[in-house]
Amino acid sequence: MAPVAGNTKDIPPEMRRKSAISVGGVRIPWRLEPDFSAFVHPEYGEQAVGDDMRDRILDATERLLARLGYQKTTMEDLAREAGIGKRTIYLRFSSKEEVALCSIDRIVERLKERLRSISVSGDPSAERIRRMLLTRVLFRFDSVRDYYQSIDDLFRAVRPAYMARRARYLAEEGEIFAGVLAEARAAGEFSFDDPFATAHSLLLATNSLLPSSLSTRELGERKDLEAKVSLIAELLLNGLIARRDDVHSATSPRPRHRGRGRALNARA
Question: Which of 56, 61, 89, 137 is least enclosed, having the fewest CB within 10 Å?
Answer without folding.
Answer: 56
